[in-house]
Amino acid sequence: MTTTSKIVLGVLGAAAAGVAIGLLVAPEKGKDLRNKIADNAKNWADEFGTWLSDKKSEATMAAKKMASKAEDIADEAGQEYNRAKRSMS
Known about the structure:
Layout: H1 3-25, H2 30-88
Helix pairs in contact: 1-2
């Protein structure tokens, strides 16, 4: 896990804890409070799912770029090998 993703997860966790504590301390009826907590939890889960999906897409694109670059390098190496082989003959 990269430093950036650790920081993002830490911030998300701290924010979620802050919201939960704030809701628990607020003077509301139990049922209203539970509904509010459930709604907030669902919103956080949706946002985290979207963030995770975005990161997965970014990782997939990076992997495809690296695979393409590796193929290009392998092709160039093969061409250089063939040139060297022909010059030795």
